[in-house]
Amino acid sequence: MQLIRCPWCGPREEVEFHYGGQAHVAYPDDPAALTDEQWARYVFFRDNPKGAFAERWSHSAGCRRWFNAVRDTRTYRFLAVYKPGEARPEVAS
Amino acid sequence: MADTLHRSPVLRHREDAFARLPEGLEIVAEPDVALADLRVPEGAVASATGVVGVALPLEPNTWVARPGGQVVWLGPDEWLVSDADERPEALEAALRAAVAPHDGAAVDVSAQRTAVRLRGRHARALLATGCALDLHPSVFGAGRSAQTTLGLVGVVLLALDDRGEDYRILVRPSFAGYLADWLLDAAVEFEPPGPAAAL
């Protein structure tokens, strides 16, 4: 089984983690000002790259903390993990 | 005082089976104690030291002993404080009074987990049949803890010695029966060879 490195707990089995979708999707500054289409784009539309993708993950069976990871969507390999609030690291996929 | 918690011991129907475990394995359902979930923001960690009695462990996946119990690291700003001598509401109130001015929180979670003690020279091998972590004492010795899965159950695992022969498993009471049955089943392979013992 693939191991995912929790920024706090270290390498743990993949089944301990929960996927949380694309990372770095900023909440709109003024949600009430958005049109329905703009709101729908914020809520439902996500990138779907082939290659490195920044995602949110939660160590749900361990420390239950959220963190971000850059994963290669072609190979499922984790290229980097980093804590929330930190900038996305530059990684070569 | 453990007897301040009036709860039926969830594992009392397994005690006969625990008594028949093979040599080198011992399972004891520990008395329930007061447990409090403590949240303290980074930077205010020292505010809890007075009530807890020891400095909160800051290294992930560790625990330290405190007067009457232990403090387990659960997250970068979260700890589990146990106390066998205090009433749960008193423990909660004392912790809350200490950390609330620093935006911390303390919540009584005494009913959330029950403790199972696993001892014996086969203890580590038994755990290894259902836990993916490296439990060798060189990396999981006394003072280490882990929140992980054992069998199919989420547990908090505490290493109590440096020989891999003494562990405390904190498990949700509703899963405790399953975990006990799982441990008893896993223990079968440590039976001495010979005619199969009646389970």
Automatic annotation (TrEMBL), chain A:
InterPro entries in alphabetical order: SoxD, SoxD_sf
Pfam family, one: SoxD
Gene3D superfamilies, A to Z: Folate-binding superfamily (3.30.2270.10)
Protein's name according to its UniProt entry: Sarcosine oxidase subunit delta
Organism: Pseudonocardia humida
Species classification: Bacteria, Bacillati, Actinomycetota, Actinomycetes, Pseudonocardiales
Automatic annotation (TrEMBL), chain B:
InterPro entries, per the entry: SoxG (IPR007375), TrmE/GcvT-like (IPR027266)
SUPFAM superfamilies, per database record: Folate-binding domain
Alphabetized Pfam families for the sequence: SoxG
Highest taxon in the source lineage: Bacteria
Protein name in UniProt: Sarcosine oxidase subunit gamma
Organism of this sequence: Pseudonocardia humida
